[in-house]
Amino acid sequence: MKTEAAMNEVLSYERENRLVLITIANPPVNALSQQVRAGLLAAIDKFAMDESADIAIIIGNGRLFIGGADISEFGKPPLEPRLPDVINRVEACEKPVLAAIHGTALGGGLEVALGAHYRIAQGGAKLGLPEVRLGLLPGAGGTQRLPRLTGVDQALNMITSGTPLTAEQALEHGLVDRVDTQGDIRRAALLFARELQVENAPVRRTGALPRPTADAVLLQQWRERLEHRARGEVAALSALEAVEAATRTELGEGLVTERKLFLALMQTPQRAGLIHAFFAERAVGKLAELRDANPLPVEHVGVVGGGTMGAGIATAALLSDFDVTLVERDEGAAARARDTIATYLTAAVKRGKLDETACQAILEERLQTVDDYSRLAHADLIIEAVFESMDVKKTVFRTLDDVARPGAILATNTSYLDINEIASATNRPESVIGLHFFSPAHVMKLLEVVVADRTSPELVATAFALARRLGKTAVRAGVCDGFIGNRLLSHYRAAADHMLLDGASPYQVDRALRAYGFAMGPYAVADLAGLDIGYATRQRRAAERHPRERYPAWADELYHQGRLGQKTGKGYYRYPEGSRQGLEDPAVEKLIAATREQAGVTPRSFTDREIVDRYMAAMVNEAARIIEEGIAQRPLDIDVVLVHGYGFPRWRGGPMHAADQRGLASILADIHRYAEEDDHFWRPAPLLTQLVEQDRQFNSLNHS
Length: 704
Ligand code: 3H9
Fold this sequence. Notes:
Blueprint lengths: L1 E7 L2 E6 L2 E6 L9 H16 L5 E6 L22 H10 L4 E5 L2 E3 L1 H8 L2 E5 L3 E3 L13 H9 L1 H10 L3 E2 H6 L5 E3 L4 H15 L16 H15 L4 H14 L2 H16 L2 H15 L16 E5 L3 H12 L3 E5 L3 H20 L5 H11 E4 L10 E4 L5 H14 L5 E4 L6 H5 L8 E6 L8 E6 L5 H14 L2 E6 L6 H18 L3 H11 L5 H8 L1 H11 L11 H8 L25 H14 L8 H21 L6 H11 L9 H8 L1 H12 L10 H8 L11
Parallel strand pairs: 3-4, 4-5, 5-7, 6-8, 7-10, 11-12, 11-14, 12-13, 14-15, 15-16, 17-18
Antiparallel strand pairs: 1-2, 2-3, 8-9, 16-17
Helix pairs in contact: 1-2, 2-3, 4-5, 4-9, 5-9, 8-9, 9-10, 11-25, 12-13, 18-24, 19-24, 20-21, 21-22, 22-23, 24-27
The structure holds (S)-3-Hydroxyhexanoyl-CoA (3H9).
The site of (S)-3-Hydroxyhexanoyl-CoA (3H9) has 25 residues, from β6, α3 and α11.
């Protein structure tokens, strides 16, 4: 006999042979929305009273168990019932409850499973507590129950990194009782429940397990490790405090501590920043032009040019199972490109991303390195990554136009050149697109998809699909010098150079920006990229330089002295004996002082706060222009570019989100003040002025 009742729209209660299936159906990820929480509470109450039911199974409909609390409810007034109460109710139930996990059980989803008395997971399922990545800690018992099951060290591993375990690892650590390998979680859960029923298995409350033990040394080591890693982020250290509470107090008291810490984190700007970043990453691919466009199939990728960039792109494609043909100008260069790719793949083996056999198979079967363009005749997508020169690129595109099959996608990896002009070298400009990878291309997650005037929507859709397959985040950009990222970089870097001209040291600028949360300061970045790049850019723009532009002459001098950064052991910093950790160098400060003298500047001091304010104001002002011109469609696109490609602290959400948090009026006031000294560089963007006048935020443009 089978009875079924809907508790509400997202939760059903189904009874069969004294077993109950409580099914959550809240697509797309079965998030624990108010309706799900209310339904689950009602279902457990019903089960508790149901005299014809012995065991309940909580299971998710669709492709996963539960993706966690409903993030879209965060920052809004809390809605009853609260998740911790629902989970306590599950645990307190007098009859056994089994959690049946497939796909993923994340955050509050895993906490529901921890509140159940037994757990079964489907092979390959992922179980994790990723709350710290959202600036939170597990706030529905996870910090108290997980260490009781796995021990403190493993629980801290999971909670402070947010990295999930596979079902198989979860079994090893005692987090689940059984792993099903047959691929039918519902059936496996019913079988498991039947066994429990036959055995008359008791309820088994995780919260009733003995307090986990941890010696002071272990906790102290964790604290030091997390403080070292935190770089301004607070969530992981708070999570440690909650887990420490689990080692000292009984469950009830531990849950109170956890709740207090969770609510405190909920109020932080970091939580708001990280959740903004989470939704922005998912919104970047939602573009009006993609609504009716289908991606074209891509299996065979051609790459032109086997330097660092071309080899990196080829490696990224090979690691994502594409067939790759790389063309170089002669046999020797083709062989060198193969060696570079082999080195990158070997490094991937060392990092555990690839096994040795797969690496050999890739090199033998899926990679062709040739010196003959005609070998690209069957490629679905060809990415050009040759020297940054319009003439060279046009020659390459003319050749590609001759050899590529009709309908093939012709992409350029240029980082600033006019893609409309490149496309004009072909008879098929609608098939030309910019795919701006970041170096090293097989590691960096950002891909700027640069859409030229004639690029077809199918190409844009294909570029986004390609990025997904490569494990990268794609952001749409329009054509201009530097697109989104490099155009912004040259502007905020100029603001930093102006501060150097006025008296700041590059080391103070780097320190101030690292303290703000950047992965690296701009001068350490310049050393990493190579000072020849900045020099070439200044040369390229020399003809259009405005007489009022303040010029960093010391940077040219560094170049002429052969101080090209890390690769020559000296740049802004010194790198003794191949070290990657730079040391400050008084010789550089002397060069800068000489430029100041020549420019007749009396040096003044800067506070770290002013350095950050000026740097951010320059970034935000130029970003507003980029949006106005339609180069970026929304502020969130800029946030994603800066976070994924330029080391901007993710916990600040991105520069546009950070600007909203700080207040646009105050940034505009700063710009007006800076303009009193230099009204050439500091011209307020009309969009920024308009938003301030209308008392609006950048975020208001994300939803339009
Ligand atoms: C938590 O649990 C706190 C508790 O400890 C305590 C509470 C008291 N809520 O990523 P996708 C949306 S904190 C609302 O493309 P996938 C997402 O925005 C939470 N919405 O799919 C997207 O919407 P749209 C801890 C969510 O298959 C759609 O679902 N949990 C949530 O590539 C599809 O998402 C996490 O941090 C959510 N929780 O990956 C897990 N999750 O279609 C966060 C997703 O409109 N989620 N959406 O763009 C994930 O990591 C991935 O979404 C997941 C699926 C792996 C689940």
